[in-house]
Amino acid sequence: MNTREKSSKRFRALLRRGLGEAILVLQAAEDRERYKEIVLWACLNLTIYDPQSEGSRGVYLMDAIRLFEDDDYFAAAMIRRFEQRYLDDWTFDQLCELLCLMAGEGSKRAAAALEGRYSDLLHQLRRRFSDTASTRLLWLSSWLTGFGDFRRFRRIVEDLGAYEHKYEGRLFLDSIYSAAQRRFGPKRVETYLARVAAQSAGAAAFLASIQAFRSEDSRSMEQDTPTLSALIASARAGKREPGLALRLARIATPDELRHLAQLAMEVTDPDVRLAMLWVFRKAPFPLGEELLIELAEHEDGRLSELAFEAMRLVPSDRIHAYAAELVRERRHLSAAIGLLSCCLRAGDEGLLEAGVRALSVTQRDNGWHSSFMRVEELLNSRKMRLDPSIYIHMYRQTLCSYCRHWLIKRMVRRRIIPHAMLEACLHDSYEDTRKLARRVLVRNQDHSPMHNAQQSVKIQK
After folding, report:
1. How far apart are CA 130 and CA 444, in angstroms?
2. Which of 30, 272, 311, 381 has the fewest CB atoms within 10 Å around its CB?
């Protein structure tokens, strides 16, 4: 692989992770055109590891697009992709945002494509209900509301409200309502809906849908007190109810936990055992560490994963020795790193760092994700201090921009973040990371010796 190919591969990896370094590479590149297809690839395909946690990458990708000064090249390809019938929902969502940003900057092609897709989806729903069409119309309407003017919002209220009036309860309109509140302010939105609901059946249906959704959301928070018998009955019926199990973990007595653990270990059906043992993700396992170690080697990966989670709550010397052995042998590596992080002893730092560097970070295997989070939590400890280079390694390797944000935040708190990394974070794909970098850099500038000297001169004058 020649130097040019290596630099392209590195840029693709940076862009895929949403790192600000990708934007810096583009800004500094004399032959920027060779990165153009890679940027287009990132626009047309979802590169986000966890869309629900990380949010969107429209602003980040637009920062890259602007550097080429060729919006038509990107708009044409994105519109073709946007209009495809078979397109996964998250990629559709990303294209909605990108085209809205382009339309906001004056692209008539992008604006026409958005309007055409909106009309097409609305027409589809008026003929026949479709989960896919309804999801896409809601997402598109949310973006159009978030970027549009109030007139656009009024039209969406009437269009979708009329549909909701005809087919009550088929659409979840809260995302549009929330986008309108962020864009125009809660008071203006609420006042408008209350006023027009008395005049328009569509607006009345829209408002009723919002009120019903929020009422249902409130009721879902009011849950019955969990009982041990309910969990056991549910497990034996072949059901796994994580919410019930985790709520029970908070209130179960020691005797109840012991009874449940004994019952679970006597069961041979792995599904029933898993349902019963789920409690011990949040409550200490009462039957001793050897049973958990035995369970960690179980052929059923779900039981093995649960055992590692349970061992984190009982970090004994035996558990520590087992975790260290696994890391040295590179067995169950991701789970072992997470476990070792929870029972780390002085002298383990080198072993832990070597294990983290040996982890394979891929989209398909997400074991690295929880391991990185456990190691990241060590930044909160005043007793354990790992070499900052391991955190820089995690910053560069993680595919999750949400986790990267919390890693950066903790590095800032510990004052071990390099200045160059903060500069790159100004262009990160995660909005809160960009905001954090701006605040820290301004604060650092305000406290720099040069700044203080300048302030002193001003005061003397």
Report:
1. 53
2. 30
pTM, to two decimals? 0.86
**Length of the chain, in residues:** 461
**Rounded distance, CA 315 to CA 323, Å?**
10
Structure confidence by residue, pLDDT tens digits, 286-323: 999 999 999 999 999 999 999 999 999 998 999 999 99
Q: Which of 135, 128, 52, 124 is nearest to 88 (CA)?
A: 135
pLDDT-above-90 percentage for the chain: 72
Band of residue 85 on the pLDDT scale cut at 50, 70, 90: confident
Please give the Cα distance from 302 to 276 (Å, whole number).
13
Q: Cβ neighbours of residue 26 under 8 Å, at least 6 residues apart?
A: 32, 35, 39, 64, 67
Residue that has been written with the tokens 């983290």 in this structure: 356
Predicted pLDDT of residue 125: 84
Give dist(CA 84, CA 76) in Å, integer: 13
Question: Which ranges in 252-348 belong to alpha helices (H)?
Answer: 254-266, 270-277, 289-296, 301-311, 317-329, 333-342
**What CA–CA distance (Å, rounded) separates 48 from 39?**
14
Q: DSSP string of 395-434? A: HHH-S-HHHHHHHHHHHHHHT---HHHHHHHTT-SSHHHH
* Helix orientation angle between 131-147 and 108-127, rounded to the nearest 10 degrees: 140
Distance (Å, rounded) from C-alpha 308 to C-alpha 329?
16
Residue 129 has pLDDT above 70, yes or no: yes
Mean pLDDT in the chain? Answer: 90
Euclidean distance between CA atoms 259 and 278, whole angstroms: 14
Q: Give 230-233's long-range contacts (Cβ < 8 A, gap of 24+).
A: 231/260, 231/275, 231/276, 231/279, 232/260, 232/263, 232/276
Q: Nearest to residue 101, comparing CAs of 65, 138, 69?
A: 65
What is d(CA 396, CA 417) in angstroms, rounded to the nearest whole number?
13
Q: Name, in order, each residue with C-beta under 8 angstroms of 423's C-beta and a sequence gap of 6 or more.
A: 20, 24, 437, 441
Q: Name which residue leads in pLDDT, 398 or 211.
A: 398
Q: Which residues of 147-164 are buried (b: 16+ CB within 10 A; e: fewer)?
A: bbeeebbeebbbbbbbbb
**How far apart (Å, rounded) are the C-alpha atoms in residues 338 and 372?**
8
CA-wise closest residue to 202 among 159, 162, 164 = 162
Q: What is the DSSP string of 57-125?
A: -HHHHHHHHHTTT-HHHHHHHHHHHHT-SS--HHHHHHHHHHHHHHHHTT-HHHHHHHHHHHHHHHHHH
Q: What is the pLDDT of residue 222?
A: 46
